Amino acid sequence: MRAAHVARVRALYRRLLLLHRALPPDLKALGDQYVKDEFRRHKAVGADEAQRFLQEWEAYAAVLWQQANENSQNSTEKACFGAVLPEEKLNDFRDEQIGQLQELMQEATKPNRQFSITESNKPKC
Q: Subunit structure, briefly (predicted)?
C-alpha cells in the first residue's frame, strides 16, 4: 500500500470517530465499533474494492458532517441522523454485506436505545 493511501485511510478513520462524537451515546458506541470492525475487515482487500470502500465511507462522513451541523444549528429540535438506503444500492450488496446490515439493524433496534430505525423514506429523528 502506498504511503499516500495509508494516510488517506488513517485520516478518514480518525474523521469518522470524531464525527461520531455528535451522535447519541448508544449510537456513537455502535458506530465506533462498526467503523473499527469494517476497517479491520478491509485491511487486505484489492485496490478496486479498497477504492469503493473509501468512497462509501467518505460519502457517509460527508452526510454525517452535514447532519451534525444541521442538528447543532437546530438545538431546540430532536437530533436527526441517518439516510435512506435505496433498493437499487441494496441489490448491489453481497450476501455477506446483507448479513452485516441485518446484524447492524438488529443491534440498533434493541430495546432501551436512545434512537429508533424505521422503514420510512425519511431518516428517523
A: Interacts with the iron-sulfur protein subunit within the SDH catalytic dimer.
